[in-house]
Design brief:
35% strand, 29% helix, alpha+beta, single chain, Aminopeptidase, elongated
Amino acid sequence: RSLLAAAEREAVHRGCLRAHLDTHDFQAVEFYRKQGYIVAGKLEDLPPGHTRYLLKKDLYER
């Protein structure tokens, strides 16, 4: 959590307005949601049998 927060602070410092990332259904979707990320899209069956989630978070509200 602290590493993600540090990366977000650095992104804001560099003028970024939004963060984007992706993860799979067997990884950390709920972790990122708890950090304020929302699901922007899903790629079904990538890899086969799993879903890849595309997440985003607005940073300018911080």
